[in-house]
């Protein structure tokens, strides 16, 4: 698999299981690009929803994508600390032609607060889409196993939840900005 170069720009494209484009983040900067991990950053970037509606992100964010895990993690730098939004999703693929990181969003999300407490979100949306889009039982099993891993990372302060991770990558982002 080809990976993007640090300092280059990429789009982030989220799809649904049906193949429909769900959401696009424009102009994220690649901070680290390997076959297994991509770390990106953006600040006040345009986001386009599947219905064409667009909005701007409000704060700097460090985005962590892993080719081995079925989740991605966004660390948002806010005045009261780092807030995380974690999407249960397929592992990413990087499309060199489109300069885009792509993944399938599987509805379940985990919101993590600066004190590392967290909430599981959108279980109802997951159940609706699971029936509507016919998620295979294998996907359901994988997602709940990966949710356990994600919760372990949160509780243990691993990966993007480790002290300094988001701040250090944000400092790197500022060198490109």
TrEMBL record:
Superkingdom of origin organism: Bacteria
Domain DUF402: 19-158
Coiled coil (UniProt feature): none
UniProt entry keywords in alphabetical sequence: Hydrolase, Magnesium, Metal-binding
Metal-binding recorded as keyword: yes
Record InterPro entries: DUF402 (IPR007295), FomD-like_sf (IPR035930), Ntdp-like (IPR050212), SA1684 (IPR016882)
NCBIfam families documented for this protein: PRK13662.1
Protein's name in the database: UPF0374 protein YgaC
Annotated gene: ygaC
């Amino acid at each position: 698999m080809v990976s993007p170069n640090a300092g280059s720009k990429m789009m982030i494209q989220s799809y649904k299981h049906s193949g429909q484009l769900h959401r696009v983040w424009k102009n994220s900067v690649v901070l680290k690009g390997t076959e297994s991990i991509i770390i990106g950053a953006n600040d006040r970037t345009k986001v386009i929803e599947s219905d064409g509606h667009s909005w701007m992100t409000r704060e700097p964010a460090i985005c962590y994508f892993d080719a081995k895990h079925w989740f991605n993690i966004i660390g948002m730098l806010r005045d009261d600390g780092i807030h995380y939004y974690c999407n249960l999703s397929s592992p990413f693929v990087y499309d060199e032609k489109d300069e885009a990181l792509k993944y399938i969003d599987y509805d379940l999300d985990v919101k993590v607060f600066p004190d590392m407490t967290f909430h599981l979100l959108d279980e109802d949306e997951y159940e609706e889409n699971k029936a509507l889009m016919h998620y295979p039982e294998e996907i359901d099993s994988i997602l709940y196993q990966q949710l356990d891993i994600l919760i372990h990372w949160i509780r243990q302060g691993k990966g993007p939840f480790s002290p300094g991770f988001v701040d250090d990558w944000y400092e790197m982002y500022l060198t490109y900005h």
